[in-house]
Amino acid sequence: MKNIVASRRTLLRGAALGVLAAPMLNTKTLFAQSGAFNWKRFQGQSLEISLIRSPRGDLLKRHQAEFEALTGIKVGVEDIPEQQQRQKVVIELNSGRPSFDVVHLSYHVQKRQFAKAKWLAEVGGMLNDAQLTPAEYDRADLTQRGLDYATDDGKINSLPWSVDYWLLYWNKELFQAKGVAYPRTIDEIVTAAARLHDPANGIAGITARGLRNANVPVWTQLMLGWGQEATAGAPPRLMTDTDDAIAAARVYQTLLRNSGPQGVAGFNWNESQSLFAQGRAAMWIDGVGFAPPVEDPQRSRVVGKVGYGIFPAGPKAHHSGMFGDGIGIASASRKKEAAFLYCLWTTNKQMSNRLLQGGSGVPFRRSSLQDQATLSALTVPKEWADCVRGSGEIARAALPVIVPVTEFRDVFGTALTNTIGGADPAAEMRRATAEFRPVLERSEQG
What we know:
The protein is of the alpha+beta class.
């Protein structure tokens, strides 16, 4: 009788504290109930998801009801623009009480920062647990590049979701009208942009990101043509004031200052997308995920006129810049196992094939680009998929994997924006390098 009373008191005390409303999972007892994987294991729980507003996030929202029906888990989603989402999640994670359980992260910006602060739950154990990961998830199908992105200090801290290769979008109609061939080298991009630039008729020879911070990947993509990345070695040392880095900055300046649209110093990807979709830019440098809007007759005037080109070679090398997104679980979440199911669903084969089929991105899965049903049902031109496949063969990381990536982009983004205004690229790269070097050194010591 004493035991019964004690248990009842314990239950009442827990109810008063609100514990019963949001039960903590006891994996030792709960998982012991069944040795088989069960999507409904955590039904009745609810999750909050933080997404970057993007075609990838749109895909998850579009199929959200499917996940809820599959698992019995209710989902609340907040999706906000990229820069704001990155700032918001850092503030919340740093507080120790984030409002979300699952977070969409950009490896090329946040990997080292999140790992160093231990803001993400390690998921390797759950990935290897047959009660939490179904066999059909097929971990072996995840690419090594994706797993490398998701791993830090030997721990898998998220699931790799989408890889973004950079390419050259081009308007075939404008090229044909001027008798210009598709450029095969970076020098030919400069020449083609100058020939196609027609401001009197509202046509820019090329568009790309000129906005501080957002513009840095354009420069680093160009820099890969000289076979160079922004940092080298371990600990990383800056390579941003070398002759090759300065040469890439000079090309950036020439393209946007001489052949870019008016006001390009304020352009992010969305302004460039709008300009290109309206047929007012002959070329556009950016990532793979913009085929759906430029092929949408409700939003675009260039449907059927767009070329998708593997980024042209530089004087010393031929690479496509690679960026990556993942989906992870906040280490402060009290619903880690339920959150893991959402991450599994996001990155499973069906959702990965949908991601590719709609042209919203390229999954970190080998099978998707070989799945004939997916390829035959593409909602974007096959040329896009061919470009994606070819870009993957020459891909190379386009941003350094360091903690202060945002500061890196701010400092060098300012320098690049200054060059559009006429500043000397060599002076700007040297100034920015001197300014950022102590920031990088401090981050490595911390």
